[in-house]
Specification:
Oligomer: homodimer
Pfam families (chains A, B): Coprogen_oxidas
GO molecular function, one term (chains A, B): coproporphyrinogen oxidase activity
Subunit structure (chains A, B): Homodimer.
Order of helices and strands of chain A: EEEHHEEEHHHHEH
Helix content of chain A: 25-40%
Distance between the termini of chain A: 31 Å
Number of helices of chain A: 7
Shape of chain A: globular
Keywords (chains A, B): Oxidoreductase, Porphyrin biosynthesis
Radius of gyration of chain A: 20 Å
Organism (chains A, B): Rhodocollybia butyracea
Strand order of the largest sheet of chain A: 1-2-3-6
């Protein structure tokens, strides 16, 4: 983390820690209908301040934004994945053509369930440590000033409704079978596995004394299912298998 | 871990690791009926050998047994908890009166969902690093020789059926309501949280390249449920609240 924020003092220079400010917003929707994908968005801001200059307006030692949005279908509708990605690509491209390709790849890497060798869903965008300095994964052709980065993050926030609601409207009332519901619940088991085993925010949150557990775990689905050695999804020609193929081999959607 | 097995070489003395043998058996039963408790038992054996003496029968550098059994009800029947604990106490007492009290406390400590401030269930017994040398948690009044420790572990294995099956027989056909099923599924969500966030065996297993994920995650329930800010269990006088009381304040059952 500090590698990304070299203006921060080293731990030995601030043994008692440093004052900080953190703000974030998270959104997770798990629709009942198996044809309607789960959607997630999260945007966050961190700021570390100098305790020796607490009344100065220039006392910020380091600041950064993080966040992203991703789509997790149980049944693959390629047009939905393309629409979701295209909406975020358009929002990114207004700031820099370099952003979407990097943030798309980062999303596929982050939401990877390593013990299953599959991604959580069809991805979207993900980023962290967005600040004015050099960035380990991003080119310099991006918003750098704090106001510009905030405008970029606001723009991504505003993209969620046009990215997701048209998909939800189209899928939420489709007819579905008990078998499709069963598959959806198995996929939600994988969502639980990712969030509890791999997600950094969840893991850090649960280890924090006094953390508000209900807020941290609001990302979990209402119901999840596990089947020992389930054969659902193993037939590559089935609708379930078509989803698995793109989770095992992330695709360029736009 | 090495603190418990001082005969093992230090990592710097064996940079390539050491040959090992591991064997274990795990059993988890999640009954459908909310009045019938979940039961879990696991016994395991590890052995580390000296690569320089691979054809010697005395090439074992360190060996130890671990294991235990615990009960996780959704509805509290104190007589069930007492029967389960009494069965394991009797099995332990045949080897040493010092064992059950230590293994009971260890179980309550191990199966603790720290982020919820509650135990997973009403406990049972738990132990690790049982070998011939000094033990950090156990007195010397216990089986020490390898054959004696194995006999003790076999005796605990044999105690599972008399500890659990009478409870299952009595509860498996009780009438239950949709609300009781809902509560059972919420409790199973907590079981998932413990296993994926806290359980050492699960965490190590999932991080091991090439691990058999289906075996590791067979402990998860068929269905689990999460409710944001659920009020179930909050009324201390309700049947759900009576369970919560003993999960928050582990009890001596025998």
């Amino acid at each position: 983390m500090r590698a990304d924020h070299t203006s921060m003092p080293l731990p030995e220079d601030a043994p008692g820690g440093l004052p900080f400010f953190a703000a974030g917003i998270s959104l997770v929707i798990h629709p009942r209908n198996p044809h309607a994908p789960t959607a997630h968005a999260n945007y966050r801001y961190f700021e570390i301040t100098d305790p020796a200059a607490s009344d100065s307006p220039t006392n910020v030692l380091a600041w950064w934004f993080g966040g992203g949005a991703d789509l997790t279908p149980s049944y693959l509708y390629p047009a939905d994945a393309t629409h979701f990605h295209q909406t975020y690509k358009t929002a990114c491209d207004a700031f820099s053509a370099d952003l979407y390709p990097s943030l798309k790849t980062w999303c596929d890497e982050y939401f990877y369930i390593s013990h299953r060798k599959e991604t959580r869903g069809v991805g979207g965008i993900f980023f962290d440590d967005l600040h004015q300095g050099q960035h380990q994964r991003l080119t310099e052709n991006r918003p750098r000033e704090q106001a510009d980065v905030f405008a970029f993050v606001q723009s991504l926030g505003a993209a969620f409704v046009p990215a997701y609601v048209p998909i939800l409207s189209q899928r939420a009332n489709m007819v579905y079978t008990p078998l499709q519901r069963r598959w959806q619940l198995i996929r939600r088991g994988r969502y639980v596995e990712f969030n509890l085993v791999h997600d950094r925010g969840t893991k850090f949150g649960l280890m924090t004394p006094g953390a508000r557990v209900e807020s941290i775990l609001m990302s979990l689905p209402e119901i999840a299912r596990w089947e020992y050695m389930s054969d659902m999804g193993e037939d590559a020609l089935s609708e379930e298998g078509k989803l698995m193929e793109v989770l095992r081999n992330p695709r360029q959607w736009v």
